[in-house]
Amino acid sequence: MKVDLIIHNCAQVATMASGGKPKTGKDMNDAGIIKDAAIAVKDGKIVAIDKTSEIMANHEGGLLVDAEGGIVTPGFVDPHTHPVFVHTREAEFAMRLAGATYVEISKAGGGISSTIESTKNADEELLFNLAKKRIKKMIALGTTTLEAKSGYGLDTASELKQLRVIRALDEDLPIDIVPTFMGAHEYPVEYKNDHEAYIEILTQDMIPKVAKQGIARYCDIFTEAHVFSIDESRRVLQCAREHGMELKMHADEIEPIGGAELAAELKCTSADHLGAASEAGLLAMRDAGVTAVLLPATLFSLRSKSYAKGRFMIDSGLIVAIATDYNPGSCNCDSMPMVMTLACLQMGFTPVEALAAATINAAHSIGMAESKGSLEAGKDADLLIWDMPSLDFIPYHFGSSHICKVFAKGRLVHQA
Ligand code: NIG
Ligand code: FE
Predict the structure, then answer these.
(1) How crowded is residue 100: how many other Cβ atoms within 10 Å of its Cβ?
(2) CB–CB of 110/92 below 8 Å?
(3) Ligand 1 mean position to 49 CA, how many Å?
(4) What pLDDT digit, counting tens, does each position of 188-211 carry?
(5) What is the CATH number of the domain that holds 33?
(6) Ligand 1 probe mutation, 331, 332, 339, most atoms within 8 A of CB
(7) Nearest-angstrom CA–CA distance, 405 and 284
């Protein structure tokens, strides 16, 4: 068979194949390894993965890439990011070092509100260029699929503008970007004491307009004691569902207010953060099939002493994914390998569980598993060639990159 690309001389290919389902429980530890392997690619898709001798005997043509005895994994799927904003907030990092908490900074007018001030009226081209630069760094760190949220506008026009920027990034960059509407990221300053009026805008104006333009797949909300309450969240999310969007939540990040329980009740696609979620809420999520997207780099950056109960979640059979939460405030981390390290050290994942959470399960959590998250015939050739002796090496050696080449849909998009 004539193909476009053959990657050969791979000591191992960690396929993360899982039969079309997310990986749960003990299956998370199965990387689906094929040794001495090669991968054949045509039209951006994997056509075969097998022993090098088999692939070479049955495929020809195109580009021949020597993996030089390295390990190949799927590209990372980062299922929770906020990359569209103007200024970074390193001054808040310094304030947290001096003892202030994220919520204190937010209540004093910093936090999300300060990003909104500079982002709301920024022109589309500036937002696009800034986000593009950030996402290119993510690609160099192995991310080949991304979920990106709006939420730094909080009025209809600027939320739509951020979603247009996300759409333009998806069209311009070689990776796939899944858009999420997050107009319920915070209450705008002028509505802090009139939640009802802002919920009215969300449900009567923003959600219908976003839905009509078909510009967001998911609707997300910051359900937390100092932001959207459980009842407020339920109303916003139900409205989004009525308008055809799928649901995500920032749930129980800091305080256990019942976000996990609400995610289960509404059968959201995912509930993210969950640093303080109750065990009952987590088990309800499992029973409702809601994926837990854990963001350990955020809690690390917020100097939290405790992390989400990732070990408990895996052992209880929840679908667990991990993400960076890349944003200018709580977590300016763009590295999925670093998040894998934190998942292992702070939540007790094994390296292979962390890889499953960062690839196949992450793909399921943003509805992309048909084409992303594992290396299987028919899926996109999104893959990483690593210079390392074993998969354990990814979280073990943190702080620098061991990725030699990044391919997205069969195209080389980064080379060390
Ligand atoms: O996931 N929690 C809400 N949103 C972000 C923080 C965004 C910001 O601080 O700008 C998060 O942590
Ligand atoms: Fe977030």
Answers:
(1) 15
(2) yes
(3) 40
(4) 989 999 999 999 999 999 999 999
(5) 2.30.40.10
(6) 331
(7) 41
